[in-house]
Amino acid sequence: NDNFGIVNALMTTCHAYTNDQRVLDFPHEDARRARSAGINIIPTTTGAAKAIGLVVPELKGKFHGVAFRVPVADGSIIDLVANLSKDVTVEKVNDALREAAGGDRMGKYLAYTEDPIVSTDIIGDAHSSIVDGGMTMVLDNRMVKVVSWYDNEWGYSSRLIDLCVYVGKKLPVAVG
């Protein structure tokens, strides 16, 4: 958004199944999540699109998305398609993402690769997002597709640790 201005975006997450899902078909309040996680691709909702507006207020209401729970134990991917306010090329988008991943502000959270990776390659990676630069596409100069991987268990746990450290630093220190 800082470099090219996001007008609006649709995102699709292909998310490894979680403990909220069933191993076998079994009752659940969400009929789709009631189906066996290990053998089905399960369309469902995602809170990620709304969460973006909480983290980056200027993007509130500009994102919408869906999730597909897929039969892998770990390793997830986001497919983001955005309309931009400025003309771009694949190279410009990838350069901006690569630069952000190498910077002090985002380097702990964002990684960039052009290696032909798959879901198991990112298991244990603490980054919140690993941009797959080889998958970036641009259509008509202002529509961009960015694909990014994440370890939905380790990456999330890493952010919880960051939060605990942050809160711990804010607590008063007992003396004596």
From TrEMBL:
Domain of life assignment: Bacteria
Coiled coil: none
The keyword Nucleotide-binding belongs to this UniProt entry's keyword annotation: no
InterPro entries: GlycerAld/Erythrose_P_DH (IPR020831), GlycerAld_3-P_DH_cat (IPR020829)
Signal peptide: none
Record's keyword terms, sorted: Oxidoreductase
GO MF term (any one): oxidoreductase activity, acting on the aldehyde or oxo group of donors, NAD or NADP as acceptor
Glyceraldehyde 3-phosphate dehydrogenase catalytic domain span: 1-150
Similarity comment: Belongs to the glyceraldehyde-3-phosphate dehydrogenase family.
Protein name: Aldehyde dehydrogenase
Species name: Candidatus Tanganyikabacteria bacterium
